[in-house]
Amino acid sequence: MIYKDRNNSTSERVEHLLSLMTLEEKIGQLIQPFGWQTYENKDGKIELTKEFKEQVKNGGIGSLYGVLRADPWTGVTIETGLSPEEGAEAVNEIQRYAIEHSRLGIPILIGEECSHGHMAIGATVFPVPLSLGSTWNVDLYREMCRAVARETRSQGGAATYSPVLDVVRDPRWGRTEECFGEDAYLISELAVASVEGLQGESLDQEDSVVATLKHFVGYGSSEGGRNAGPVHMGKRELLEVDMLPFKKAVEAGAVSIMPAYNEIDGMPCTTNRELLQDILRTEWGFDGMVITDCGAIDMLATGHDTAEGGMDAAVQAISAGIDMEMSGEMFGKYLLEAVRQEKLDTSIVDTAVRRVLNLKFKLGLFDSPYADPKNAAKVIGSEEHTALARKIAGEGVVLLKNEGKILPLSKASGKIAVIGPNADVGYNQLGDYTSPQPSSKVTTVLGGIRSKFAEEPGRVLYAPGCRIKDDSKEGFDYALTCAKDADTVVMVVGGSSARDFGEGSIDLKTGASKVTDHSWSDMDCGEGIDRMSLKLSGAQLELIQEIYKLGKPLVVVYINGRPIAEPWIEDHAHAILEAWYPGQEGGHAIADILFGDVNPSGKLTISIPKHVGQLPVYYNGKRSRGKRYLEDDSQPRYPFGYGLSYTEFSYSNLTVQPEVIPADGVATVTVEVTNTGDMEGAEVVQMYISDTVSVITRPAKELKGFRKVTLAPGESTTVEFTVGAEQLEYIGLDYKPVVEPGEFRVLVGKHVNDTLHATLIVQED
């Protein structure tokens, strides 16, 4: 059999297998049912369901979604779920049945969620992408992606639905936490690193998985910040901003892409031929697989209302370029009958099947379909990955304010009161798309601070004070009592993207966990949780204000999935740390920074407004967008690229050589950076470009380069950037990239509003 012989080329194997398949078998390859529904875990023994066996018998299954996913949606808990070793064994059992009981023995593509770690029980939970972006450390992120790939593939997962490459335009959107930030260039750099890290040197290796780019495209620019809402964007901005990260990731070798739920100019992305055919495949040369988001095809008939029913929706989608449907319901129900009724040509089906099979052969699934359970037990949640999670979390924390250099705290500074709803609730610091965790797995901020005083536990006091969303003040008195008895107060507040994991509640009067019939949900962020405000939920601000009245040094730590705009806190707190959702090691990382064991180096990748009424407030807007409102100016409270350190850095000697170049020329930009403080630290050196005059209006400034450098006290280094067509071009009148002759300003510095500048001239040829 040609397709079973690894000595034949992939194309030969694909075409031979395709020629042997019935129409039912072909359509089976295009559907992806929910994986956790294919088996039952009975006292540690896996039993495949009758429904799964029937599907294998009646045409087969191309892929399964979330076999290993565990969370309240799947209903898989720590008690009913699978250990790393058991998970690998379960995937092998599923794979073995599909291969041995289907006519052609085609293996199943196992797809898993891995936005910030493999979403399976026991896997390492890294910081969310908003925190990862704040590290500005591309190499470290690539290393993390390698770790995620190792953990996922060790259990048989061969595809992941990450990275999320959406450009955030309205942080009220609940999925802001899943994104890297508001700048397309920065996202592009991380996108490339993600593809390199996840896919490795070759897809058929035991530590490589498919990277699925999502959500293509414009998903982060929805109307009103509402999830999957319409996007109002011109083609030029779409090409120049939102598509850029996807284009760079495709050029890096990404082999899978997921269209977004939203519509753009009246056209749903799921059926947008210009996006999926003309641009993605013809212009960019993408030859991989296109898979829908869950339920996206159904939305065509019950949401967008561009299809008359399920069959019409399914035909529209596959005809536009969709190869596989996540959830599989619409393709499974309607494609066979559509062909029989001559509403769908078999050649379109063949094209989609060809892409799916090609990916499976590239992954080596036909030759090595099974995982090694012992390796899974060794790799998943390893000490190496745990240490990596702590390092990344530390680099992603942004120091927003440090009045009087109150930080770092001295370990000899008396008692510390750790107060707030996010001080000791592990799930609240993990973010959405997280599996159930044993309490011992996650180190909270309270746990991290206590670890610094292991020999003097009495010096650390704790009170939750309030919940995230509840207005109850029943915990205020106990919190105030703790604060009065302390020398310094660390308030840990923010938001929560924790699903209902059945953890019970916290006694606000004592801080102790208690079992109740009601599992309190504090979720105010995450997928489908969009807000009208960027203020703290519930009674959190009032709690902070009451504690402030005590006159104690007040440090605020934000743990959250979107920016917080609270002017009172920004004016009154002595220090503010923005930690986003820092993952399982976040408590250790935050404590390391609070006590100076780690010098903060995170920088904002998203502008933080003074007030929600300023939105949109992203830094790279057009010059014509106006200067101020009646009440205040239009500048954010904290600008893009901003972040303090415990040391100081100075910039000097900015040069551009040569100062004049042709349109296809290259200039070298150099700047000297010096650590003028008394502590080693890392600085993110940022380069922006401003096109002073252009035929098409341009943003005032655009990030076009960055370097993270570590310097000892008194040490200097010269940082170099290259400026050429890629940094100077924009989408011209004909919707093609053009470098327009004229004057450009090159700006280099600490953040977008603190830079040195020089001039570069592009001459006519």
Automatic annotation (TrEMBL):
| This protein's name | Beta-glucosidase
Which Gene Ontology MF annotations are present? beta-glucosidase activity
Among the Pfam families in the record, one is Fn3-like
- Family membership, please give it: Belongs to the glycosyl hydrolase 3 family.
Q: Which PANTHER family match?
A: BETA-XYLOSIDASE, PERIPLASMIC BETA-GLUCOSIDASE-RELATED
List where this protein forms a coiled coil: none
- Locate the Fibronectin type III-like domain: which residues? 683-752
Q: Which UniProt keywords apply?
A: Hydrolase
Task: Enumerate the Gene Ontology biological process terms.
Answer: glucan catabolic process
